Amino acid sequence: xxxxxxxxxxxxxxxxxxxxxxxxxxxxxxxxxxxxxxxxxxxxxxxxxxxxxxxxxxxxxxxxxxxxxxxxxxxxxxxxxxxxxxxxxxxxxxxxxxxxxxxxxxxxxxxxxx
Length: 114
Hints:
elongated, zinc ion binding
């Protein structure tokens, strides 16, 4: 049984975490984080929204679950990504802007005579 494109899309958006720049703002501005938390209903969150990992933007059911998460590799990767965010120059280079690919070669068309 195959996965339909609509099912695949729903899974990706459901698991989407907050972007690095949003989390960076949460870390620098407690008010921004508080406004984000107010948009979520505590009854719908694990552990009634008491245990939250700011760096990963995830809620946990218990304090030990949060502690175990903070010792794990995915959390450490996220913290490392937050330490040094990408610059605009790096983002432009990633999509191919402002990169030098060398001189362009002239296209030559060979005409065969029959």
